[in-house]
Structures are given as structure tokens and as C-alpha cells.
Design a protein that fits this description.
This protein has 340 residues and is an alpha/beta fold. The protein folds into 2 domains: 199 residues, Isopropylmalate Dehydrogenase; 141 residues, Isopropylmalate Dehydrogenase, CATH 3.40.718. The protein is 37% helix and 17% strand. It contains 12 helices and 12 strands. It has a 12-stranded mixed beta sheet with strand order 3-4-2-1-5-12-11-6-7-10-8-9, sandwiched between helices. α1 links the parallel β1 and β2. The radius of gyration is 20 Å and the shape is globular.
Length: 340
């Protein structure tokens, strides 16, 4: 995609400063994708990480007047200062507010883009560390939930794309013991409607085919291994199917992810985090992309964590970040055409 077809830049947040997020951003200065972006991070942090990586880096302060293509070895940056000095691999809860401030700035710039306003067309996020943010006394369950709150979205849905699959989740970062109680009819219906809408409006799929995994082994085995499928899931799926949505009955998750079944779908809906994501990450780790559906803005992210042990070593793999940038740009273009 060239700059002319994608005039507004993407916002890239650098994530946890002690992790590989800054490394990934510095690596972007060496790549020419033709997709304009601006990095939101501490400038000194990026320069320090570039020095550790042995990379030449020129930082340019971002403004709307320099939103065109940048020179090699340079990044356009919106400076958000760290709260405390950062050492690669060493977490510091004092910098948790810095991490959230970069996300707030990106969201601020994305707001209103779909209505012809806003300075950024979408946002791409490097990984954050949930544990250290919570240690700072800030309740934080993940990007998905935080961005939903910032944008006023009633419901956000996590979906990963990779390995020829799209896998969405009904519940995200919940302990397994809490999953069954969290899945009720309104939640399941809202998630499916969001998936349907965004597959049409952002992925360009006119008639999405959605396969739905059962919650229990063997999708409940007719009620002998759990009744959630019978009492919660099937009534919702029948009702949406009657409206014209192409959604399956609850399917056993242990046989759902087989090639001949996946070939019949555009998306798989899993009931909880570790039901669907291990399969997708096995097929595509390092090349997958996390997409947040249901937001009024476009957001993608990498498919991996902060990798503290790799920070500043030059061993971080930037392919997932590049894939996230490419997919974000494609979603922007598709949504623009859909709204036209």
C-alpha cells in the first residue's frame, strides 16, 4: 500500500519500556513498508535502545506537516516521557502510567477518523506487561478491555489472525474457574453481532461464516458433560441463524480445528482464551496479529508478549509487528471502501 492510498498515519505504541516493544519500534526504522506511521514513546528510550542494538536512528518530532514518507534509519515520534529510567529486562511499576499514557495518546489521535476527523487512521500496539501495571495499583486486565473503556465501546472482542485462521474469543483474560459463569446469552449474542459487523465492514466478507466452539468437552455431550450449550448457547445461535447469520451449532473444540472443518468458515469463536489461541499460535506464532473488534477505531497488535529476556539483545523478531501494521492498513482501506 502506498502513501497516497493511505494518507493518515498509523499510531504505534511502544508498550512496556523494559520489554522488546522499543526494539520493535527501532527496527521499523530499517524497513520500508510504504505505510506511514508515527511512534508514540519516550525519545530517549528509543535512542538508548537503538544504541544497544547497534542501529543508527534519527528521531523527528511528528507534526501533520511531515506526515509523508520518512527517510531510512529515522522515526517520526510523539514524545511521551518515561516516569523513571528504564533498564532493558527490568520491570519498574513506576513506568506503568507512562505505558497507559501512550495508549491514551494513540486513542485520542484515532478518535473520529471514520467520520473524516482524527490524525491517525488506526493504532498498532507493542506488548504491555499486565502484572507490573497491576503492581502499580492500576487495575488492568489487558489492551482489549482498556481500549474499550477509553473509546466508550459497549463490548470489545479479541480476535487473532494467523495461520490461515481467524479466532475470536467470548471471554479473554479470566481465570478458567470463572469462564462458565461469565458466558450468558446477552454476552454471546453481542460478541457474535460484533464479529459479524466487523468481518463485513473491516475485512470485506459480505456473508461471514462463523464456527462456534462448545464450552464443554464434546460440546456438552447432549447435557451429560455440561448444560451450557443447551441452556445458553443453542437458543442464541438458533435466534441469530433465523435472522440470517451463518453461525454453527456448538461444535466440539477438539475436532473443530481440523482443515476440512476450518475450510467452511471465516472465523472460529472460542469460549475462552486457551481454547482457541494455542491452536492459532502453534500455526503462526511470530506472524500472527491480534485485532480488537467492536471499537470505533482500528487497533491491531503483535501476537506475543514483552520478552523481557530479549530486550536490547538484538534477538527480537519484528515480523509480527510488521504483520500488525500491514493488517491495520488493510482494515483501514477496507473500512473506508465499505463506508463509501
Amino acid at each position: 500500500m502506498n502513501v497516497a492510498s493511505h494518507p493518515a498515519p498509523l499510531a504505534i505504541t511502544a508498550g512496556e519500556p523494559a520489554g522488546i516493544g522499543p526494539d520493535l519500534c527501532v527496527q521499523l526504522s530499517q524497513v520500508s513498508s510504504g505505510i506511514p506511521f508515527v511512534v508514540i514513546a519516550d525519545k530517549k528510550l528509543l535512542l538508548q535502545r537503538a544504541e544497544l542494538l547497534g542501529m543508527e536512528l534519527l528521531i523527528r518530532d511528528y507534526s501533520a506537516s511531515n506526515e509523508g514518507a520518512v527517510q531510512p534509519n529515522s522515526l517520526r515520534v510523539i514524545h511521551v516521557p518515561l516516569v523513571a529510567e528504564c533498564q532493558p529486562g527490568v520491570l519498574n511499576p513506576a513506568n506503568s502510567e507512562y505505558v497507559l499514557a501512550t495508549l491514551r495518546r494513540a486513542v485520542q489521535g484515532c478518535q473520529g477518523y471514520a467520520q473524516g476527523q482524527g490524525e491517525f487512521s488506526g493504532m498498532v500496539t507493542a506488548p504491555v506487561h499486565k502484572g507490573i501495571i497491576n503492581e502499580a495499583g492500576i487495575t488492568f486486565t489487558g489492551h482489549t478491555e482498556f481500549l474499550a473503556e477509553l473509546t466508550g465501546a459497549m463490548q470489545a472482542v479479541m480476535m487473532l489472525v494467523g495461520g490461515g485462521m481467524r479466532v475470536a474469543l467470548v471471554t479473554t483474560h479470566l481465570p478458567l474457574k470463572d469462564v462458565a459463569a461469565a458466558i450468558d446469552s446477552p454476552l454471546l449474542e453481542n460478541v457474535l453481532r460484533i464479529i459479524q459487523r466487523d468481518l463485513q465492514g473491516r475485512f470485506g466478507i459480505p456473508h461471514p461464516r462463523i464456527l462456534v466452539a462448545g464450552l464443554n468437552p464434546h460440546a456438552g455431550e447432549g447435557g451429560h458433560l455440561g448444560r451450557e450449550e443447551i441452556e445458553v448457547m443453542i437458543p442464541v445461535l438458533d435466534r441469530l441463524r433465523a435472522e440470517g447469520m451463518d453461525v454453527s451449532a456448538p461444535l466440539p473444540a477438539d475436532t473443530l480445528f481440523t482443515p476440512h472443518i476450518l475450510a467452511q468458515s471465516d472465523c472460529v469463536l472460542s469460549m475462552y482464551h486457551d481454547q482457541g489461541l494455542p491452536v492459532l499460535k502453534h500455526a503462526s506464532f511470530g506472524l500472527g496479529v491480534n485485532v480488537t473488534l467492536g471499537l470505533p477505531i482500528i487497533r491491531t497488535s503483535v501476537d506475543h508478549g514483552t520478552a523481557l529476556d530479549l530486550a536490547g539483545t538484538g534477538k527480537a523478531d519484528g515480523r509480527s509487528m510488521l504483520e500488525a501494521i500491514k493488517l491495520a492498513a488493510e482494515l483501514v482501506q477496507c473500512e473506508t471502501m465499505y463506508r463509501a
